[in-house]
Structure formats: structure tokens, C-alpha cells
Design a protein that fits this description.
46% helix; 19 helices; binds uridine-5'-diphosphate; Rossmann fold; alpha/beta; 513 residues; seven-stranded mixed β-sheet
Length: 513
């Protein structure tokens, strides 16, 4: 059985970004890609993660690697294999990094299992990786690969997509577990500076926030008829007919149709003109779907009309998220116990994952039909759903945690200072439902903010800088045992880091060996 599986990515045309990002940004992307390709020589960039579907990391890799393919950057993606025990350990690490103390400490046996599982994956990966190749490991599931891959002569950066800006016993335990594995890595990438653990050498750290793709099925424009057609089709909106339009553009440019149904728990269905409040998330305690439901029932329903839709992936679909079914089950129990009036206005929706494009079109339609989008997470690495909602010109009510704080700038949405405060949540949501003019103003400001800061070209350029630094570091390491300039490049802001990398490596590079 093959452990480390290749993921095929559909090419995405960067030219299609031009009308969105403008000619100047587009030209800069092409020019930087040219220079980067020369710098790369015959090296390959490898991304290694734990799943190809579901969740923000997989989502983003499909997009960025699709653009990389169009730019002729040799970048590949491998997904590791783990058993249920392995994913239970990594889920615990994930929760601990978010400061969750529940679940108890990881044992020596857990550590051995984690190490062995990744050693088996590393052995397979090393059949394909060559010395000098650049590797980007994603999240705690892959951290244990670093040592073996560095030893084999690749340059390894570990990207942590999660984090909190404080420490407790749980975070210290998680980092204590991961640190021996990570020590060998050449670089570390975090979404926010505040997430970097104190022991990590700052000079090796780069900060790269995520991005969204405005052209993907998740974010592409959909007209109102199609939005309602898709939502009727999947069983969320009332009044669907078999002739409804459900088409969307797939990432490869072909036309797709939403044909599958969602599993919808709800007594009633909103009509096309009812206001919707929507949260799209994995079924994870830290997304607080249950808290959204309770806050809506207690503090939004009594004040007027509107429905709440809580949507997440089919619970059997995300294999690296063993808690999904339990969290969904808990929401279901709480939903059954709601007062009848609230229950009639709340829908729990699980979306099939069999076809990533179709799943994305469903999320797109839900976010576009929303009057208000919410993301009441208790902790959040970045919170791509916030950028997705803002891009669609919707006002977002989000907890002031993690990357949500960076995204919801003044006037572009509402930040909830205490994510547990259901009343404040309800008041914010009710206020926006009752004031469509203000909601519209916020939504427009939100879209402009996302265009400027969180579209893929910005993200790709930051990665090019990171890899440039890693390559410079590699060469310096070969010629000098201590390599301060290259390490400084890793710590520098992206543009300076790129310049430093280019200075260290002016000619097209060939991989060592
Ligand atoms: N998502 C999806 N289908 C679902 C639920 C979520 O495509 O049924 C997507 C969502 O649109 C977003 C990503 O998964 O793009 C979640 O990323 P986020 O950063 O919000 O949270 P994470 O899951 O990474 O913690």
C-alpha cells in the first residue's frame, strides 16, 4: 500500500486574475514568477499535508498549486497516510496548540506511534524527493517528517496554519511534543507573528497569511437565480423545481452542475426572500456551531425574522477530523432541545464532499444568499470563511480571535470581543438584519479590503520569497558553516528576504547533487 499519495491539482490561469487585481499586480506576478523559476533551477517544491479535501489548508493548496502550475513552477503535493490512532494524536495536538486542556497529556506510546507512522511516510517520500528540493510541511500532522527529510538533503520549512497568541499548559505540552521533530527544519511559517512559540529562533520564521481565490467555484460570481437554484437543489431553500439553474464554473474552466443533495436537518425551509444568517465550518468544537445556534435562538429569533443555517462537511468525509461526527451529533441533540419557535428557524446542513467543485459551489451559494455571515469561533488560525464572506460583499460578525482580527478591519464587519458572549453576538446579528443599508455598506468595504490584502497573487509572492530564502540558506550552509545573511533573509519582510535571496544567488541555481 502506498502511504504518501500524490494529489493531482487542476491548473488555474493567472491571466483570469488580471481583471480582479489589475494590470500592475498581474504583471508583477508574471515577472516575479520568471525570476523565481530561474532561481529554482531543476529543484521541485513539495507540499506535504494530511488531507486533500475539506478544511482551509487543502482548499488553499488546490488554488496556489493550480496557479503555480500555470506559471510553470514545478510544485507537487503529497498527502501522508495515518491510522485512526495517529489522527487522534494529531487532533489532540491541534487542540492543544489552541490551548484546549481536555483530553489529557500525550503519552510516550503516543509519541512513539506518531514518530513511527511518519517515519514510514518519510521512507516513501524519499523515493521521490531529491537533495536540494524544497519541502513545505503543513501542520502538526507532518512535523515529524522534518528530520528525515532534512537529513536527506532537502530544505524543509514547516508551516503552522493554527495558533493562539497566549500560552498555557496545553500549548506548552503541544510544543514540547513537536519541538524535537521541528528542531531540524530550516524555516517556519506562521499566519501571524503572535503565534510563533517563544523557543523558535525568530530569524528562521516567516509570516505568511493565507488567501482566497476569487475565481474558484467557492468564490466565483453566481447570479441570484443560480444561487437560489443551487440552494433549492441541495434542499436548503423552499420552492425548488427540477428545471432550476445549478451551474457553476469548475477550476478547469468546464461547466459543473450541482446535482447532489445536502443532508438538511430542519422543520421548515426558508423561502428565497427570507434573510439568512450563515456559518460554514468544519464540525469542530472551536468553531462553536452550538454556541451560534444557542445565541441565535436566544437573542436573534425573539427580535424578528430570519433563519440560521449552520453548514459543514459531511461528517464521514474528513478523515483527519475524528471529532466531526461527535460535534455534529452534539449540535443535533441541542437542536432537538430548542424551543419550537427557534427550532423552526435553524437548519443544520452537511454538504457532500464527493466532488470538491460541487461542494465549493454549495458553500458559495450559501454565502451569497446570506444577509449576514458569522464566524463565532473560540479560536481560529486564520478563518478563511471570513475572507470568503467578505469577498462576497457580506457583512461578517466574527469573534475577535486569531486571524479574524486581521481580516475584519474597522468598518468592514463586526468583531465580537468575547466569543462566548451570545448576547453581544445576537445583538450584532439582529442589528445587521434590521439595517440592510448599513449591512450593504459594510459588505462593500469588506470586499475592497480582501481584494487588497488576501488574493492569491500576494500569497504566491510571499511563498516565492520564502523559498528564495531557503535556497540561499542552503547554499550558504554549503560554503560556510554559519550562515547569518541567509537566516536574516528568512526573518526579513518578504520583499527584503527576496532581495537578499537573489543577492546570495544571482545566477540560475542548479540543485546540489
Ligand atoms: N469548507 C468547505 N466545505 C464545508 C465546510 C468548510 O469547503 O462543508 C471550507 C470553507 O469554505 C473554508 C475552509 O473549508 O474555505 C475552512 O477554512 P477555515 O480557515 O475557515 O477553517 P479550518 O477548517 O481551516 O479550521
Amino acid at each position: 500500500m502506498s502511504l504518501a499519495k500524490s494529489v493531482d491539482v487542476e491548473r488555474r490561469s493567472v491571466d483570469q486574475l488580471e481583471p480582479i487585481i489589475g494590470a500592475e499586480r498581474h504583471a508583477r506576478l508574471l515577472q516575479e514568477a520568471d525570476q523565481f523559476r530561474q532561481l529554482l533551477g531543476t529543484r521541485t517544491i513539495w507540499n506535504i499535508s494530511s488531507t486533500a479535501v475539506g478544511g482551509g489548508v487543502a482548499e488553499m493548496l488546490h488554488v496556489l498549486l493550480g496557479y503555480a502550475a500555470d506559471l510553470d513552477i514545478p510544485a507537487r503535493w503529497k498527502v501522508i497516510t495515518g491510522d485512526a490512532g495517529f489522527f487522534a494524536i494529531t487532533k489532540r495536538l491541534h487542540n492543544q496548540i489552541h490551548g484546549e486542556t481536555a483530553g489529557g497529556p500525550l503519552t510516550k506510546a503516543d509519541a512513539a506511534h506518531y514518530t513511527n507512522m511518519l517515519a514510514a511516510n518519510a521512507a516513501e517520500l524519499l523515493d521521490e524527493l531529491r537533495p536540494g528540493d524544497l519541502v513545505l510541511l503543513h501542520d502538526p500532522q507532518t512535523a515529524g517528517l522534518a528530520r528525515a527529510l532534512v537529513r536527506a538533503g532537502t530544505r524543509v520549512a514547516w508551516r503552522c496554519h493554527i495558533g493562539v497568541d497566549w500560552e498555557n499548559d496545553a500549548t506548552r505540552k503541544a510544543w514540547g511534543f513537536l519541538r524535537p521533530h521541528l528542531a531540524a527544519a530550516d524555516g517556519y511559517v506562521f499566519t501571524r507573528r503572535d503565534y510563533v512559540p517563544a523557543w523558535m529562533p525568530g530569524r528562521k520564521v516567516a509570516i505568511i497569511p493565507p488567501s482566497i481565490d476569487p475565481l474558484s467555484p467557492k468564490n466565483e460570481p453566481l447570479d441570484g437565480v443560480t444561487v437560489r437554484g443551487i440552494l433549492g437543489r441541495i434542499g436548503v431553500l423552499d420552492g425548488a423545481t427540477p428545471d432550476d439553474r445549478t451551474s457553476f464554473m469548475r477550476s478547469d474552466g468546464s461547466v459543473g452542475f450541482v446535482t447532489r443533495y445536502a443532508e438538511v436537518t430542519g422543520e421548515d425551509r426558508p423561502g428565497p426572500h427570507d434573510q439568512l444568517v450563515v456559518q460554514v465550518s468544519r464540525w469542530d468544537q472551536l468553531k462553536d456551531m452550538a454556541g451560534v445556534m444557542q445565541g441565535f435562538a436566544k437573542h436573534v429569533v425573539p427580535g424578528g425574522d430570519g433563519y440560521l443555517v449552520l453548514a459543514g462537511p459531511a461528517v464521514a468525509g474528513v478523515t483527519d477530523d475524528p471529532e466531526g461526527a461527535a460535534v455534529f451529533g452534539d449540535c443535533l441533540l441541542q437542536w432537538r432541545d430548542l424551543p419550537a419557535e427557534a427550532r423552526a428557524r435553524i437548519l443544520l446542513v452537511t454538504l457532500p464532499l464527493d466532488d470538491a467543485g460541487e461542494n465549493a459551489a454549495m458553500v458559495n451559494a450559501l454565502q451569497r444568499q446570506a444577509s449576514v455571515i458569522v464566524q463565532k469561533s473560540l479560536a481560529e488560525g486564520f478563518g478563511l470563511t471570513v475572507a470568503e464572506g467578505m469577498w462576497k460583499g457580506r457583512p461578517v460578525v466574527g469573534s475577535a480571535v486569531g486571524g479574524i482580527v486581521d481580516q475584519i478591519a474597522d468598518g468592514t464587519g463586526i468583531l465580537l470581543h468575547d466569543p462566548h458572549d451570545q448576547k453581544a453576538f445576537g445583538v450584532a446579528v439582529r442589528g445587521l438584519l434590521d439595517d440592510p443599508a448599513e449591512a450593504g455598506r459594510m459588505g462593500r468595504a469588506a470586499q475592497a479590503y480582501i481584494r487588497e490584502h488576501y488574493v492569491g497573487d500576494v500569497h504566491l509572492l510571499r511563498y516565492a520569497d520564502l523559498f528564495g530564502s531557503l535556497m540561499a540558506k542552503g547554499r550558504n550552509r554549503e560554503s560556510r558553516p554559519v550562515a547569518p545573511p541567509a537566516e536574516a533573509a528568512l526573518a526579513a519582510p518578504p520583499a527584503e528576504a527576496a532581495a537578499a535571496a537573489r543577492q546570495a544567488e544571482p545566477a540560475p541555481a542548479a540543485p546540489p547533487g
